Predict the 3D structure of the following.
Amino acid sequence: MDKNKYKGLMARKLLENRHSDVEFAKHCDDEISGCVMEFIESSSAYGLELIHKDNTVPNLLIGCCTIGGADCEDDLEELSYWDEEDLVLSNVFIKEEFRGNGFGKKMIESVLLLDGNSEHNMFAYLLDSDLNMFYRKLGFMNAFNDGEIDDDYTIVKLKAL
């Protein structure tokens, strides 16, 4: 990536009527593309764009995530502080060639501040233990015990913003 071409980052909602958003969602990752498309239709999908210095060149969409009502309510209802308004962060994806540059962190931090998302408890499922430190650095902690994130299948909660 040539960092000299870009002047910043912008998080925004992905739009159903924007062809480039739909194409990105369809091809982002085989495991999540269908889910991202559903969230685009319900206005709950977000993307991260690199803003090109040359205003005549389109911004480059490099990542996406979704935020919505909890699809894991059975697990979350066990929590004494669970509320029906709580949200779940999911389908976090950054294009492979842009990983390792802090873009995932920046996208999640930015999206949490959009649309009143920060007014609710935010949960995420960690299905891969390799992501534990990434989410811990963002302020997430285990929702069910002493805050340790230690196994392959963990529900994490973001500490108050």
About this structure: The radius of gyration is 16 Å.
